[in-house]
Automatic annotation (TrEMBL):
Similarity-based family: Belongs to the UPF0410 family.
TM regions (residue ranges): 27-47, 59-82
InterPro entries: Transgly_assoc
Subcellular location: Cell membrane
The protein's name in its UniProt record: Transglycosylase
Length: 88
């Protein structure tokens, strides 16, 4: 997968993570999508390093999507814990 595919995957994973964890985010839509892109990269790295499941070259691989959504979800939770009270 190329970088553009990872960005698209990250954006979609960020939206899915946001649906799974509703509420107000300190960064708004742009912050949430940036977290989604970063989460896709982090999730892919964790999948390859710790679960011995390298990221596949196909865009529609279920394991790749699971890693991206999981990474986005974790980063969104951490982001809310660190910066959640900054927007009242």
């Amino acid at each position: 997968m190329g970088i553009v595919s990872w960005i698209i995957l990250g954006l979609l994973a960020g939206v899915i993570a946001k649906v799974l964890l509703p509420g107000r985010d300190p960064g708004g839509l742009i912050g949430t999508t940036a977290i989604g892109v970063a989460g896709a990269f982090v999730g892919g790295w964790i999948s390859a390093q710790f679960f011995d499941r390298p990221v596949q070259k196909q865009f529609f691989d279920l394991g790749t999507w699971g890693a991206a959504i999981g990474g986005s979800f974790v980063l969104l939770v951490v982001y809310r814990l660190l910066f959640g009270n900054s927007r009242n």
